[in-house]
Amino acid sequence: MIAVLLAGYAVLVGFGLPRRLSEASWTSRAPRLAISTWLATATSVACAALLAAAVLIVPAHVLGDSLVLLVQGCGWSGYGLPALPWTVPRAVGIAAMIGMTLRLGYAAARVVGAQRRLRARHRRDVRLAGRFHPTLDVFVLDHAHPSAFCLPGRGGTVVLTSGALRMLPPAELAAVIAHERTHLDRRHHHILTCAAVLDRAFPLVPVFGETHRELRRLVELAADDGATRNCAPQTVARAVLRLAAPPTTSALGMGSTAVRQRVQRLLTARTPLHRSAVVARALLVAALLLLPAAVLTLPALSDAAHHCD
Q1: If we measure between CA atoms, which residue out of 138, 242, 229, 236 comes closest to residue 186?
Q2: Would the pLDDT of 73 be above 80?
Q3: Are 137 and 155 in contact (CB under 8 A)?
Q4: pTM exceeds 0.85
């Protein structure tokens, strides 16, 4: 029964929530909160699917009781794994668990490996063909096309092309650098990597593909907001327009994603989300993260409390 509930929850959230969330207007007003919501949604679906398979392998009360006792610091005493006869549901659970684990592992290896090779090549190119600008604390790559991007890892590197350096006035140049440093400071590359892994592992599940697409947009909005802390929104908007073209190398480029929406957003007065709306969405994030585990642990809480005594 619990396996059916978890599987049904994964299907409902994985297929039903992405469209409603992608159509919600509040995500552009609060991109950081929206990033958390999308990540929580994708994580919740993945965990529910894995737990549904695990419940077919090991009885639900054993998983729930063990998790509660572990959290309470009571250990595993008295909760040894019972003898498990070979049944069709258990075989299905084992096959599903192995399949999902292998797909996740393969996707992670491919995505992370490709990103590391790409960044290593970019760093080599910047080191060989670029020069360090000590005043701006960035690397300048000799290229006529105006562009800016960041290379995560090893402290993070902001790269500008010589074309961008010539084109951008000082205020817009500061906005571009602040935008890229926001990407680095908030580890947006890790967020996009996690989304890319889930999308590659399970391409037929809508929530993972939609999460990847939406996060690419939302991290740009969040970086724009980071730039406006020290720069006027109009200045950031002008910089986005000047660099409105595919970046030279990086996925985290200043003018690479949702240019029109970003410019309109920067030039339009935005009303922040009301505190009650923020609290409601924060509770949604918590519910998404906790609900799959709660299905297992809530029935075991009273029993586990007796064992601790």
Answers
A1: 229
A2: no
A3: no
A4: yes
